[in-house]
Write a structure and sequence with these properties.
Its EC number is 3.2.1.1, 3.2.1.41. This is Alpha-amylase / pullulanase. α5 crosses α9. Among the domains are: about 90 residues; about 100 residues, no CATH class; about 240 residues, Immunoglobulin-like (Sandwich). It is built from 28 helices and 45 strands. With about 1000 residues, it is α+β, with helices and mostly antiparallel strands. The strands form twelve sheets. A seven-stranded mixed beta sheet has the order 15-26-25-19-22-23-24, with no helix packed on it. A hairpin with a 3-residue loop joins β28 and β29.
Length: about 1000
């Protein structure tokens, strides 16, 4: 209790001096080079160069606030490629053809219309929908794709005129230029409001792109030379360094480090003192390599510190000593970093600044305490109004004023280290578990099963993601196989090679490929070709034949590309051409349609490159979009099995047991170049309904005012829970949820959906926790949980069983779609035990966001493309705005009452603190909703040396926040007596007592 009280006292103390702040904005682009086509397949280096790479440092520099910028080696190299003409990207080449009046091929026109991957890849809410002509073109595109058969290029492009393609190319290239930059070129700025364009208009835009790309590095060079910014390198290809170290590729990492430093000296005229670890991913071997390279400091995430040294403050500066070389380590603050990256886009700059300062007032005081705000420097701003231009200017000018009045002191990282290095804290030597990638991990399906090794070191192995884990880059079958592809390629080719051979290997070692594999952060569709092209070139440049598995469009573990799957079904699928494929619990067969060869792939088969199972090429040598384990030739009536890329006839009966397929499992079927997902039927002796509850229709508004994000993917009703059912299936439980509208699967979620995220909290009789896992609400004492189920689209964190002691199990549930907008999660009983009718089950529905804290979407005051709107401003400031759309409750009124039961207190120094809402709506064995009166009041009473009772009064919200709230919205503020520190202690103790009372 004393330790907690001391922490709270520090958090609410009136500021005695400025809070130290360090800003680091991370600029990185993946390699986009296709070695075989000799061009860049994606244009994002160019598109950010004509906007954020120039405008962000220029706008911040107007305020005089010193900021550090990172530049990855892959970004610097590609900027130079554009400048010297080494490579251009596909969309620039197509645009140039249009500007010159050269005819496009049918495939080029079709590629322009792709989503993603085409000329609609731009922020729709803030950019596309605001331009009438662009919006019309999108409507034409969607109509064409809805009316034409899948993959019918001629049908789609016949609906567009040449003028349509001129306009589309011009708008795409024009509107990626940031307005702050475009306004400096009057002939370009006048084009923005046109609705029809000429080829000469397009040529002007493309010429400006070339000019602006050439200015990026010189701008950073000049600002650094003037001492206005600090430049920080990122190892060459942005490799996921800990996992390469776990593989034993230390020499590769040394090369990445030295190459990036060389680029800084050559193009930026500086010798850097700090280094940014890609994805803020570190382990002890990585820190040692940085120290050996002579770097002074690096930075990683606060969650890594929590694992490294529980209880240590991430506001302190630390160091690790390697043979007398000290490497100082910053730990970034997630809250403020994510606020700038995501949350502040839904706020005005003034309100965002108030929130920023409100948080800083909670930081413990100390000359060498520091808040590190480190985030993506290029992607957030397009989600802000006016591309973030107004926000950046106003927000950083506000910070400059706060620095003048002594509220904050903003440092460049190296300056702060030099000021405080003598007061830094050593990281303690401890035993950790790191991954072991020197063995074949292709056979593993989950991160929890991966082999590890003991290490005595100074820091845990981790990153910014998933509570400090590396789960975004490893653990999923596609990710695990990718790492083994890389490992085997290094073994097959070797690293004692010329630069021409080694360069593709360095490209393949970038973190970007496993970042997308596994669908943790979206579809790998556009990045998969780059990754494979690099590995194939590594082989071919060494004079070796690339393995067969690098020739297919399937992802490493055999998952087909999303755009290849044209149909789904359970038990049967009608395929194009009239054929129907059937499956029962034991066999698979085809009826009707033209004869041909049908290929069947079981995704549960391990695809190790050391002993490749399946075939990437068909019976006739054609490239397949799946790894075929079985082929059925309906013309000859023959069934084939495959292994190591070859097929062997086995008769005329296709038994699922041949390929290890089981009831309830998923199969991929390829016929005539199209892929279908076929679910093998399940058979149960009994399906016993245990619980059933109906939730009111239309109550998907959380505490009463929440609005969906504005992106069209969020269709009305996708967060409206209407029915919950719990079944006993013998060896497992089935949790079944129905929503008003599923919303399709816009981002290719592995479980068949993308938007919903269900939280289920179960009290099995021994509930000890009443917090929730990121929802920012609490449960009442009766509903305190001992196990929770996080049921999402199947990406990392979206298939997780969590126990009250913090132990969790990933990927143990089978999550899939049912019929009529239902989502099903089957949970083996070994994880939950036997059902008891005294179980109490609380169900929430929120919005999945793989980029958000706890994988939950941001809930803010104003809705934007990706942010939920309608939250109470003071609840947002106090961190108690519920991140919930729907609660399984008997009535909407009960839900609103529960979710608005949070309390907020404003302290005299402007800090907002609060207690979360308490929800007490749960199901019991009677299958009827058990309810309780939901009340929550924070009574603050404290006694000082002279007995004194503090009363609560109501006051309007401060004027800094009032811009976003109505005059009737109120927040509790303490009537603060003029007493000493004991009064502060008494008040905080009273608040703490109120919180703890509810958490017993």
């Amino acid at each position: 209790m004393r330790a907690v009280l001391a922490l709270l006292l520090a958090a609410v103390a009136i500021l005695a001096g400025p809070v130290n702040v360090v800003f680091i904005l991370h600029n990185h682009q993946p390699w986009y080079v296709d070695f075989e086509k000799n061009e860049l397949i994606l244009p994002w280096v160019r598109m950010h160069a004509v906007g954020n790479y120039l405008k962000v440092p220029l706008l911040i520099n107007e305020s005089g606030v010193p900021v550090a910028f990172t530049l990855s080696g892959s970004l610097i190299e590609q900027l130079n490629w554009y400048a010297n003409g080494t490579y251009i990207d596909v969309r620039y080449r197509i645009s140039e053809k249009i500007a010159r009046g050269e005819p496009l091929t049918a495939e080029e026109k079709y590629a322009m219309l792709a989503i993603p991957g085409g000329f609609f890849d731009i922020n729709w809410q803030n950019i596309l929908y605001k331009h009438p002509r662009y919006a019309v073109l999108l409507g034409l595109r969607n109509d064409a794709f809805s009316k034409c058969p899948p993959g019918n290029v001629t049908c789609v492009i016949s609906r567009f005129s040449d003028q349509d393609f001129v306009d589309l190319a011009t708008l795409f290239n024009l509107l990626w230029i940031d307005p702050y930059i475009a306004k400096k070129y009057s002939d370009i700025w006048t084009l923005v409001n046109k609705t029809s364009y000429t080829r000469d208009d397009l040529k002007k835009v493309l010429d400006l792109h070339r000019e602006l790309v050439g200015k990026v590095l010189s701008l950073y060079n000049e600002l650094a030379r003037q001492g206005k910014i600090e430049l920080v390198p990122v190892p060459y290809s942005h490799p996921l360094m800990p996992l390469l170290a776990d593989m034993g590729a230390l020499e590769d990492l040394r090369l990445h480090i030295s190459l990036s430093e060389g680029l800084f000296k050559r193009y930026l005229g500086t010798t850097p003192t700090g280094v940014w670890p890609p994805e803020q991913a570190v382990n002890d071997e990585v820190l040692r390599l940085f120290a050996e390279a002579g770097y002074l400091w690096t930075v990683t995430d606060e969650d890594v510190l929590k694992t490294t040294a529980p209880g240590f403050s991430h506001y302190s500066l630390y160091y690790a000593d390697y043979g007398g070389r000290r490497l100082y380590v910053f730990f970034r603050d997630k809250t403020l970093s994510d606020a700038l990256g995501f949350r502040y886009s839904s706020m005005s700059p003034q309100v965002a600044l108030a929130d920023f300062v409100n948080y800083l007032k909670k930081v413990p005081q100390g000359e060498c305490n520091v808040v590190v705000v480190a985030l993506d420097g290029e992607n957030p701003w397009e989600n802000y109004p006016n591309f973030g231009d107004d926000f950046l200017k106003t927000f950083f000018q506000g910070l400059a004023e706060l620095e003048k009045n002594g509220t904050v002191k903003i440092w460049k990282p190296t300056d702060f280290v030099n000021h405080c290095k003598d007061k830094a804290t050593p990281l303690p030597q401890r035993q950790f578990r790191y991954f072991d990638l020197k063995v074949d991990i292709s056979i593993y399906k989950s991160i929890r099963d991966l082999p590890t090794r003991p290490v005595a070191g100074k820091i845990a192995e981790g990153s910014w993601s998933g509570g400090g884990s590396l789960a975004v880059w490893i653990g999923d079958p596609d990710e695990n196989v990718w790492w083994m592809w890389l490992k085997k390629a290094r073994e097959d080719v070797g690293i004692n090679r010329t630069w021409d051979v080694l360069f593709p290997l360095l490209v393949a070692e970038a973190s970007d490929w496993p970042f997308w594999y596994g669908n943790d952060m979206g579809s790998p569709q556009t990045f998969d070709p780059v990754a494979k092209s690099a590995l194939r070139s590594y082989y071919t440049r060494a004079g070796l034949q690339p393995p067969q598995y690098l020739q297919t469009s399937a992802y490493p573990a055999g998952t087909p590309r999303e755009d290849k799957i044209v149909g789904r079904g359970e038990g049967k699928i009608a395929m194009y051409g009239g054929a129907v494929i059937y499956a029962n619990t034991t066999h698979i067969w085809i009826e009707g349609g033209p004869c041909g060869v049908v290929y069947i792939s079981n995704p549960d088969v391990a695809r190790s490159p050391y002993m490749f199972r399946g075939a990437a090429k068909g019976l006739g040598g054609e490239a397949l979009d799946v790894y075929a384990d079985m082929a059925i030739d309906t013309c000859k009536g023959l069934v084939y099995l495959s292994d190591s890329g070859r097929f062997y006839p086995v008769g005329n009966t296709a038994a699922l047991g041949f390929i290890g397929a089981r009831p309830g499992g998923l199969l991929y079927v390829e016929f005539r170049g199209l892929v279908y997902a076929l679910r093998v039927p399940e058979s149960y002796a009994a399906q016993n309904l245990l619980l059933r509850a109906v939730d009111p229709l239309g109550d998907d508004f959380g505490p009463g005012k929440y609005q969906y994000p504005k992106n069209p993917a969020f269709k009305p009703g996708v967060f409206d829970l209407t029915l919950f059912e719990l079944y006993d299936l013998g060896d497992k439980f089935r949790f079944q949820f129905r929503v008003k509208e599923l919303g399709g699967n816009p981002w290719g979620g592995p479980a068949g959906f993308s938007l919903q995220f269900f939280h289920v909290y179960i009290n099995r009789g021994g509930g000890v926790r009443n917090d929730t896992l990121g929802l920012r609400v609490s449960l009442c004492k009766e509903a305190s949980w001992d196990v929770a189920l996080l049921i999402g689209p199947g990406w990392t964190g979206g298939n997780r069983i969590v126990y009250a002691d913090g132990v969790y199990v990933d990927d143990a549930m089978s999550i899939k779609l049912g019929t009529n907008n239902t989502i099903i999660a089957d949970v083996p009983k070994k994880y939950l035990g036997n059902y008891d009718n005294k179980w109490k089950i609380t169900v929430f529905l929120t919005s999945w966001d793989g980029y958000g804290p706890d994988n939950i979407r941001n809930f803010g005051v104003m809705a934007d493309e990706w942010t939920v709107g309608g939250a109470d401003p003071v609840a947002v400031l106090a961190g108690v705005a519920p991140r919930v759309f729907d609660v399984l409750a008997e009535t909407a009124e009960m839900q609103v009452k529960a979710l608005t039961s949070y309390k907020v207190v404003r302290l005299p120094n402007g800090t907002y603190i609060g207690a979360p809402a308490v929800v007490c709506a749960y199901l019991t064995g009677s299958a009827e909703m058990c309810t309780a009166t939901v009340t929550q009041f924070v009574t603050i009473t404290a006694t000082a040396t002279v007995t004194r009772t503090f009363t609560e009064t109501y006051t309007t919200v401060s004027t800094q926040v009032a811009t976003t709230v109505t005059s009737t919205e109120r927040v509790k503020e303490i009537d603060w007596p003029t007493t000493a520190a004991l009064t502060v202690a008494a008040l905080v103790a009273g608040l703490l007592a109120g919180i703890l009372t509810r958490r017993k």
